[in-house]
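Retro notes
What went well: the complex prediction finally ran end to end.
Inputs used:
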Amino acid sequence: MSAELTVLLVEDEPHIRRVLQSVLASEGYRVFEAETGERGLVEASTRRPDLLVVDLGLPDMDGVEVVRAVRHWSELPILILSARAEEADKIAALDAGADDYLAKPFGVGELLARVRALVRRRTKGGEGTPVVSFGEVQVDLARRAVTRSGELVHLTNIEYRLLAVLVVNAGKVMTHRHLMRDVWGPGHAENSHYLRIYVSRLRQKLEPNPTEPAHLLTESGVGYRFVA
Amino acid sequence: MNCRMLSRTAAPWAYPAAVAACGLLTLLVMPLRHYLDLANIVMLFLLLTFFAALWLGRGPAVVSALLGVALFDFIFVPPHLAFIPSDAQYVVMLGVMLAVALLTAQLTARVREHAIAACRREEQTRRLYQLARDLAGAVTRWDTQRALDDYLRHTGYRGMLYLVDASGETLPAVEEASLASALRETVRRAAPVEGELAGPALFLPLGARDRISGIMVVTVASPASPPPALESETFEAVASLVAIAVERLHAAEEVQVSRDQAASERLRASILSALSHDLRTPLTALVGMTDSLALSGSMQAGPTRDRLSAEALAAIREQARSIGHMVTNLLDMARLQAGKVNLRKEWQLFDDVIGASLRQLRAAYPGRPVRVRLASGLPLVEFDAALIERVLVNLLENAAKYAPADRPIEVDAWQDGDAACLAVSDRGAGFSPQRIDRMFGLFERGNAESPQPGVGLGLAICHAIVEAHGGTIRAENRRDGGARVSLRLPLGAPPAFEDEEAEA
């Protein structure tokens, strides 16, 4: 890796910290560690890492608080580690601006895949390319055109807006609330069934196998995620 | 002026006092009769009557008026020591004096009575205010009773509170039949019961018709008091004050109960969350360490020993994964069995949850053939996505575990009347017929001798989750071989959906 990428790990459990440290280091990342949320915030502001990995169950402060505090001044990608009992916290953290989550226990392969995806988004920059392709589908964000195997796919306004938001945030878990706000505007958070219906229509039009989607993925109880 | 001094009925000593005052005045004026004009002496007697009316009441004042006129006539009007006046002029004088004296007595006594009434009212208001203040500070039912006792202490009446609990039974329980029937009658009519029905008591309901929180029974405490009546002692006002206090106590109790429930709910949630954290943390470390060992091992490809250790690592990882699975199941079961589960229900389509659970199946069983059949036009169903995903993942993993790897697992979704249905079927050996009815019990396994790991939590959790949604789940063997588990979730009234306006 040319420029060394840095990861800040905020996790109170020493064993997990050691494992994550060695795995990430072996992949060529430079890893900083913080045991507490307080320490993590200080490190985040001084080290300016390329990625933040935060455990939700920190001893001193809520992981959600850490996410919120970091989002005040930075857009750096944030990956959350959660135990399943922290479902509500997980959604709160994603709503607060975290990019992705991993439920404990997770495999190293899973972790590395998520980390790579998030860092790639980061290094590619916010602009992104105007054309995104997945499977046989091409989305031209500049021309607002979607084609499947070269043929133009007709999408309604809302379908296109929804697809665009998901595609622009590729790899990132988008909560129901976030998507409702971005596509339908504020004040529609209660009507998340609209979202489900439109995602289902997008899958019918774009997924090779709509019952087992490969690109427009469901995060049950949380939201949706687009992967190319 | 103190109200107690102003008794409405004249005290027994008032009449002698009036007589004595008249005598005394006569004795005092007697030596002066040569210096004073008769008219002035009349004034003195009228003044006496005025004071008698003011201080002693109407009766003694009338007595003093009559006696004063008689004494004046007998002693001061010539001829002295005789009643028949010598001059007709004196007859007029005596007549006017009698009339004025009686009028004075009458008017003054009325003023005095008004004053007494006003004073009484003020006193009553003050005591009601005191009662209201005591009741406002009441924390228990006994405080309410005590405040009532304080209020009634000097009235000659006694009050007893019978509070009604949620089931309509009075507290404390009443043994005496006549009292019980009078209490019931009061509750039934939701209006005061007095007179014959109640005997020498008054039954006042506390609260309004639709919600009676108790009954106040007023009885006579001292034999001198008349039977209690609605009009006297503002019993109705007292009853409504007590009703407010009792209502407030009820509300406070309800708040306390729900606060206790919330506290125990929080405690349970935090225990489960701590348990979940403490069990998953070492597992995460374990999985992570095996993975990183495997990674570093694969980099230095080598002899057989490394292949063996790689296999061991894979086995450790697989076991850790299945422990993780079990922990999830156990914690879910604990949460579901604890009773009130907070379902995060939302209106959604089955496609989402089927897709998500297939993705989970793929993580453990990549390349396993699955056939999904969704009936077209399935409506929105209200359920907790994370929990129904658990059900599907459990069913899919069971199918993957017990059925041959080359036969597809089938997932079906359809609508049947007022229920949305989901089924997972396989082409395995099916359930053992003796056990099929007990499939969903805790720690039941389809086949006790099966070499597959697991403690039989999966189906029990599916059952608990579906039941929490108000649905049903059943297991059966397919006629042409294989197992099938199907669940039905009730269809409610989905929220409105306005389609986008069609555009060009």
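What we learned: The two ends of chain B are 94 Å apart (CA to CA).
What to try next: split runs per interface for comparison.
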